[in-house]
Amino acid sequence: AADFLGCVSVKEIFIERRENILRIAVKVNNELVESIVEEQNDEPIIGEIYKARIKNILPAINSIFVDLGLSKEGYMYYSDDLRAKNVKKGDDILVEVVKEPINDKGAKLNHKVSIPGKYVVLNCYKQGINFSRRITDEARKKEILENIKLFDDVSITVRTEGINAEIDVLQNEINKLYEEFENIKRQMKHSTELKKLYGEDPTLNRLLRNSYSDENVKIYVDNDADFEKVLKFSGRESGIKVERYNGYRNLFDCYGIEKELIKLRHNKVNLHCGGYIVIDKTEAMYVIDVNSGKNIKERNFNKTILETNLEAAREIGKQIRLRNLSGIIIIDFID
Question: Is-above-0.90 flag for pTM?
Answer without folding.
Answer: no
